[in-house]
Specification:
heterodimer, A: mainly alpha, MetI-like fold, two-stranded antiparallel sheet, about 0% strand, globular, B: alpha+beta, OB fold (Dihydrolipoamide Acetyltransferase, E2P), 2 domains, 20 strands, binds adenosine-5'-triphosphate
Chain lengths: ~550, ~375
């Protein structure tokens, strides 16, 4: 328990507090001067406004797409349903910064669509410029989070609640507004919350699109160009944390209603068949959405197979050379990724199981703290954590390593493990909560002590949930860029996401970078599918908060 | 199977508190080796809590528990060797029937070959040969119950704790399992503490019964004692059906007391004259099957005059409801096969009672 707390404090709390302290202190001690000067710098203010705007707009547009789709897929039966449901997961398997490259290639200034527009109408649409591009990419990437969370809340409702309302004379839009909407709100709020937090936290997408007037890229730039002594970097980090926490609080109000959805449920609601014009409409919607959703996948695949693709509709010369490059010549990227992500996932599974057990079955004091610290990473942007690590672990030799922790790849594993810890803690917690205590007591009654009980009864029964959580930790770590980009000690120690970023910096690197992107998609896709099978719950349940 | 000597359990003033509520209070009792002892009480009276205290899943806030004279408060659950069959069985869903039953043996480091032997033996004891490979989810309720029992019996605990093991079964299966359980317990001669809220079960199975209410033991004794000599109104009504009506003690006699009903009828009742004094109000408890009905015209002597107000045929007996002059109602059960005649609604009858079966209870 003590060791566990120590690890969490070192990996989560200490870096966060260091960043906080650095932002509100100078040589004389506590001061609010730095925070004050943040609000006098036009560039920072603009970044703050842009960050808020990107988060809110992504949530807004994501809701406009996600909520209707959720209602459609849960409450109606129609042929295109599977298409729509698959659509709900597809965007999630492509890391947003990889998607950004593909969008750039197809929708960007010299991209396929604008070339066509230029040839036929003599004009272009600046779809990928500035904030527009960022919001476009993020909306299309994150709307499934809103859709899946809302759908899950709807599907979990007891149909008798709705039937009771109908029975009392409510119908149509009133029924929707007075009963369904409030009941589905907690699920929706959860989806909106993670979308918001992930969007403001996203460093890769703006960097790939070369748009830096956002808080995360600003913090990154301060740290990489000015250095670790620059106070402004820390101030930006603190602002980012405040935004995340504010979002968390804001959605808490709605999430407080979450008990509704978990009440006893008698039956699944029977989806109503959809026919005629309505069915046709749904087909059209599906088709219209499938295009943009699949665009990045197709784009990145094409790019990975192309030798030359510049200012032309499609690649002009095809090759497999890009794959040879990443699989044979620079294979360290893939190898590193597997190694780091696997290690982080294993750590998370072990910690998650232990923490969940302590929280639910343990009797020691300090469990409240354990819970609070272990879920904290949900609200800490990756950039902030990375900056904190640099501040805490930089410049002194870690005992037993002979060099600073930040000079080794271990720092990446630590970062991944800490950032994804909430997933396995939550997974393990849910699994353990559903496990009657009597099952464990029965084992003790027959002579198994606590440890043996844990290994023979508790752990096997939690295994599926734990593994599913571990897989999610693995795939999300494998495509992590926000902390990676700041913490990679040397290029040969960089994982796949870093490789993509580096390759994309040069024109000739775009092919191999895209090939790495395809590897990332395959990795995430397989992992998602497996986690699905393991979790054995409704579609997309693993992406829920 | 080789057999350990089974144990004696002693509870000395045991209490357990949850917040402000004493879920168990000042329970003192001794269960003798090989005895079948039943805790009988309504839902929420603390029966499960008491079992959990003995099994070591909760620690008493007052008093102590002794196993064969040794205090066990400091012994962790896994070292107590006290077998608990859980109310909802708690079979491990990830293990087969065989693995479930073998669990405790493996914990005790029994050699593999012996484990196989023992598991086979217990499974045949509970009539589940051939079910070894099944998962708990592939079993019926009754089969699950047997596996839970087998799992505990396999380790031959010093003491067997059964928490309402039959409450999840349907009536027929319950009756059948009741008989099997009694046989098993007799064969194994294992000290057994059985928990139930079903008085019929308690009376049928036990050597002794303790009746609990709100955490405390109200009365303990043999089933006959508890049934025929209830100590208070709660026990009388909870164990079997009881006709209760208010009386007043008028006279103390050598072996009993004379009471008078509201209508002036006087009855001699067996009671300890030392505990009563003339003028005290009390309740008279009459078991329905200890009453008989006569036609009003022929009856003589002690009984009350009454009118038949209802009759239900229950197969083995007729259950009558008769109305006394004062407006009070009595329940009378008469064997269906017998010489007596069947009365109709409205018939005037005389209720006869054998004074030995009447019990005088304190008014509250
Ligand atoms: N862990 C606990 N925390 C607080 N109160 C408890 C706890 N366990 C039991 N109680 C309370 O103690 C009392 C006795 O509960 P117990 O489970 O022993 O009843 P029981 O006699 O087994 O009932 P049943 O026949 O319904 O199983 C109840 O009022 C219950 O609410
Ligand atoms: Mg109970």
């Amino acid at each position: 328990m003590l060791g566990l707390l120590a690890l969490l404090v070192a990996g989560i709390l200490a870096p966060l507090l260091q960043v906080l302290w650095a932002a509100v202190s100078d040589v004389d001690g506590f001061t609010l001067r730095h925070l004050g000067s943040f609000f006098r710098r036009p560039l920072f203010l603009e970044s703050l406004v842009n960050t808020l705007a990107s988060g809110l707009l992504a949530v807004l547009f994501g809701s406009l797409i996600g909520v209707p789709l959720a209602f459609l897929t849960v409450r109606y039966a129609f042929r295109a349903k599977t298409v729509l449901q698959t659509l709900g997961v597809l965007p999630l398997v492509i890391p947003p910064f990889v998607g950004a490259v593909a969008f750039q290639q197809i929708l960007g200034r010299g991209g396929t669509v604008n070339l066509i527009l230029h040839q036929t109408f003599g004009t272009t649409l600046p779809m990928m410029e500035g904030l527009t591009g960022v919001v476009l990419v993020q909306t299309l990437h994150y709307f499934p989070l809103i859709m899946l969370n809302t759908a899950a809340a709807l599907a979990g409702l007891d149909p008798s609640l709705e039937e009771a309302a109908r029975n009392l004379g409510s119908s149509g839009f009133r029924l929707f507004r007075r009963i369904l909407l409030p009941l589905a709100l907690p699920g929706y709020a959860a989806g909106a919350l993670i979308t918001f937090i992930r969007v403001i936290d996203d460093l890769g997408t703006p960097l790939m699109l070369n748009y830096t007037k956002l808080l995360a890229p600003q913090a990154y730039l301060r740290v990489t160009t000015v250095g670790l002594t620059d106070v402004d970097g820390y101030v930006i980090c603190v602002i980012l944390v405040i935004l995340s926490i504010a979002a968390l609080w804001g959605s808490k109000a709605a999430l407080g209603l979450a008990e509704y959805a978990t009440l006893q449920r008698t039956a699944e609601a029977e989806p109503r068949p959809l026919k005629g014009a309505a069915a046709l409409g749904v087909w059209l919607i599906s088709a219209a959405l499938l295009g943009p959703a699949l665009l990045p996948h197709a784009g990145i695949l094409l790019l990975s197979l192309s030798k030359v693709w510049s200012l032309s509709l499609l690649p002009t010369v095809y090759t497999l050379g890009n794959y040879a490059e990443i699989l044979f010549r620079s294979r360290s990227f893939i190898w590193n990724t597997l190694r780091y992500a696997l290690l982080a996932a294993v750590i998370d599974v072990a910690l998650g199981a232990a923490i969940a057990w302590l929280l639910l079955r343990g009797t020691v004091r300090g469990r409240g703290w354990l819970d609070a610290i272990a879920t904290m990473p949900l609200a800490i942007p990756g950039v902030v954590l990375a900056v904190g690590y640099l501040r805490v672990f930089h410049g002194w030799d870690f005992p037993g390593l002979g060099q600073p922790l930040t000079a080794t790849w271990l720092i990446l594993v630590l970062a991944y493990a800490m950032r994804r810890l909430p997933y396995t803690v939550r997974g393990a917690y849910a699994a353990l909560q559903q496990l009657p205590v009597a099952l464990e007591e029965a084992a003790q009654n027959l002579g198994a002590n606590r440890l043996r009980t844990f290994f023979r009864v508790t752990a096997p029964l939690m295994a599926r949930g734990l593994l599913a959580g571990g897989l999610i930790a693995f795939i999300t770590s494998a495509v992590e860029l926000s902390t990676t980009i700041l913490l990679v000690p040397r290029i040969e120690l960089g994982p796949l996401s870093y490789g993509i970023y580096i390759y994309m910096q040069s024109a000739v690197g775009r092919g191999p970078g895209a090939a790495l992107g395809v590897v990332a998609i395959v990795l995430v896709g397989c992992g998602t599918w497996l986690a699905h099978r393991l979790a054995a719950r409704g579609a997309g349940s693993i992406f829920r908060l | 199977m080789s057999r350990k000597l089974s144990s004696e359990v002693t509870l000395e003033g045991v209490g357990k508190r949850y917040g402000d509520l004493w879920a168990v209070r000042e329970v003192s009792l001794t269960i003798r080796p090989g005895e079948f002892f039943t805790l009988l009480g309504p839902s929420g009276c603390g029966k499960t809590t008491l079992l959990r205290l003995i099994a070591g899943f909760a620690l008493p806030d007052a008093g102590g528990i002794l196993l064969d004279g040794e205090p066990i408060d400091h012994v962790p659950p896994w070292k107590r060797d006290v077998g608990l069959v859980f109310q909802h069985y708690a079979l491990w869903p990830h293990l087969s029937v065989y693995e479930n039953v073998a669990f405790g043996l493996r914990e005790r480091k029994v050699p593999r070959a012996q484990i196989a032997q023992k598991v086979a033996a217990v499974l045949s004891q509970v009539g589940l040969e051939g079910f070894e490979r099944r998962r708990p989810s592939q079993l019926s309720g009754g089969q699950q119950q047997r596996v839970a029992l087998a799992r505990t019996l396999a380790v031959q605990p010093r003491l067997l704790l059964l928490d309402e093991p039959l409450s999840n079964l349907d009536a027929q299966l319950r009756a059948q399992m009741r008989i099997e359980l009694a046989r098993l317990q007799r064969d194994l001669a294992i000290t057994t503490l059985y928990v139930t809220h079903d008085q019929a079960e308690a009376l049928a199975l036990s050597n002794r019964v303790a009746v609990m209410l709100e955490g405390a033991v109200v009365q303990q004794g043999t089933p006959e004692e508890v049934y025929w000599r209830p100590r208070n109104r709660f026990v009388a009504e909870f164990v079997g059906a009881a006709n209760l009506f208010p009386v007043q003690v008028v006279e103390l006699r050598e072996t009993g007391v004379l009471v008078e009903t509201g209508s002036g009828t006087r009855l001699p009742v067996p009671a300890d004259p030392g505990r009563w004094r003339p003028g005290t109000r009390a309740l008279l408890c009459l078991r329905p099957e200890a009453l008989r009905l006569e036609e009003a015209a022929i009856g003589r002597g002690t009984g009350f005059l009454a009118t038949v107000a209802g009759r239900v045929f229950e197969g083995d007996r007729h259950v009558y409801e008769v109305r006394l002059g004062e407006g009070a109602h009595l329940r009378v059960e008469l064997p269906a096969l017998g010489e007596g005649r069947i009365f109709r609604l409205g018939d005037r009858v005389r209720v006869e009672l054998t004074a030995e079966t009447a019990v005088l209870l304190p008014e509250t």
